[in-house]
Amino acid sequence: MDDSIGYVYVQVADRVAADIRSGKLPVGSRLPNERDMGAQYGVAHGTARRAVQELRDRGLVRTLPNKGTFVIKVPED
To answer: Which among 2, 18, 8 is positioned nearest to 71, based on CA atoms?
Structure first.
């Protein structure tokens, strides 16, 4: 992760948002579950959970119970 000052979950959310913006994660794609996301970004699954909440707060993803978390919007620059 980045060595700059700030919350790690925000850094993870920013990286996922960048993947959405670049098209690596297009609208409709499913995000990895929290444990897999934690492993992918080298953070605890609780940190990944906070990152997903941050993405929901930004209006970029929606979580459907028992289905997963899906990209619903591309962030604006």
So the answer is: 18
Those residues with Cβ within 8 angstroms of residue 65's Cβ, 6 or more apart along the chain or in another chain: none
Question: Largest alpha-carbon pair distance within the chain?
Answer: 35
Residue 1 has pLDDT above 70, yes or no: no
77 has a pLDDT exceeding 90:
no
69 forms beta bridges with 63
Round to whole Å and give the CA distance between 15 and 55. Answer: 11
Pair of tokens at residue 4: 């700059």
For the entire predicted model, the pTM comes to: 0.90
Backbone angle region of 46, left / alpha / beta, with phi > 0 → left and psi within -120 to 50 → alpha:
alpha
